[in-house]
Specification:
Elements (H helix, E strand, L loop, with lengths): L1 E11 L2 H11 L3 E6 L2 E5 L9 E5 L4 E9 L2 H13 L4 E7 L7 E6 L5 E6 L18 E9 L2 H12 L2 E8 L3 E8 L7 E5 L4 E8 L3 H13 L4 E7 L6 E6 L5 E5 L13 E4 L3 H4 L10 H6 L15
Parallel strand pairs: 1-4, 5-8, 9-12, 10-17, 13-16
Antiparallel strand pairs: 1-5, 2-3, 3-4, 6-7, 7-8, 9-13, 10-11, 11-12, 14-15, 15-16
Pfam family, one: Glyoxalase
Protein name: VOC family protein
InterPro entries: Glyas_Bleomycin-R_OHBP_Dase, Glyas_Fos-R_dOase_dom, GlyoxalaseI/FosfomycinResist, VOC_core
């Protein structure tokens, strides 16, 4: 029933610094603000917002939000989840966030809050111009999981996600699973990690030139680059990973693969092959340092519903 990824909501301890980073450096637009909370839109996206920042005492993922086609689908999905023993955070009803709509929230298997919504008003957006290096949309979210096999089963069984590809390693086994809900190669991915946390959120730019311009702008701003620029094999998308002021990994990308879901067969890619992580060979080598930077801090919000 899920149609697409809507937004990722982050609680941060350094709200002012984060807001300055996302609006002044990353290229998002603050559309709605209140005391200690801001809803950030991507100029090219019809979604009301793609990131929500909230001032908090603990750093956490507040929630990850996905869309469904109708209120009937939201009701049906909520009923099915409840019948399967999934713990609902809120019952289906009117949403009080920008754009309104109808939806509900629940905890996934590791305690992340997930929101499902329908009938959210479309934001007035615009076509991103040639050379304009601001995000078009939120491309995908990658989560760290201490039980990645269980997390994959949860999203496939309860939410209908489908596997696109898997990264594996000769010594460490399967390491990352790419899951889709539409023709985009992935909207969600799951990485093996010692603890649940945000691995990264990825933002689509208009094209290769805009992606490189954006990468250069963020570098010139002095933001710490973790990895890139390069092009992955799984998803065939470009990547430049940076750390935001809270230590969350954020990615600029473009040209994420669109697949024929009727004929697609998942690949098992050997991550020890450098061409799997970076087809171009332009990025710094993937090593233990790079991997650990994306482990992030343990999420402090598991099985605790966000206050907003």
């Amino acid at each position: 029933m899920i149609t697409h990824l809507r937004h990722v909501d982050l609680a941060v301890t350094d709200y002012a610094a984060q807001l300055d980073f996302y609006t002044g450096t990353w290229g998002l637009k603050a559309e709605h603000s209140d005391s200690g909370i801001t809803f950030l839109a991507a100029e090219g996206s019809p979604e009301q917002y793609v990131v929500r920042l909230r001032q908090a005492a603990d750093k956490r993922i507040d929630l990850i939000a996905f869309g469904v086609a109708s209120t009937a689908d939201a009701d049906a999905l909520a009923s099915r989840l409840a019948a399967d023993g999934v713990r609902l955070v809120t019952e289906p009803g009117k949403l009080q966030t920008p754009g309104g709509g109808y939806g509900f929230r629940f905890f996934d298997n590791e305690g992340r809050t997930v929101e499902i919504s329908a009938d959210v008003a479309v934001r007035r957006h615009r076509a991103i111009e040639e050379g304009e290096s601001v995000p078009v949309r939120l491309s995908h979210v990658v989560i760290n999981s201490a039980d990645p096999e269980g997390t994959r089963r949860f999203y496939e069984k309860h939410l209908g996600f489908a596997l696109s590809d898997t990264l594996t390693h000769p010594r460490m086994g399967d390491m990352m699973w790419f899951l889709r809900v539409n023709a985009w190669h992935h909207s969600l991915a799951i990485a093996r990690c010692p603890h649940p946390s945000l691995h990264h959120a990825s933002f689509e730019l208009r094209g290769l030139d805009e992606y490189m311009r954006g990468t250069g702008r963020v570098l010139r701003a002095g933001v710490e680059k973790i990895w890139g620029p390069g092009r992955h094999l799984a998803g065939n998308n470009t990547f430049s990973y940076f750390l935001d002021p809270s230590g969350n990994t954020m990615e600029y990308t473009t040209e994420l693969e669109l697949i024929d879901q009727d004929t697609w067969h998942p690949h098992l890619y050997d991550f020890s092959d450098p061409a799997v992580s970076d087809q171009w060979g332009t990025a710094n080598a993937m090593n233990e340092f790079v991997a650990k930077r994306s482990f992030n801090d343990p999420d402090r919000g598991l099985f605790v519903a966000p206050p907003v």
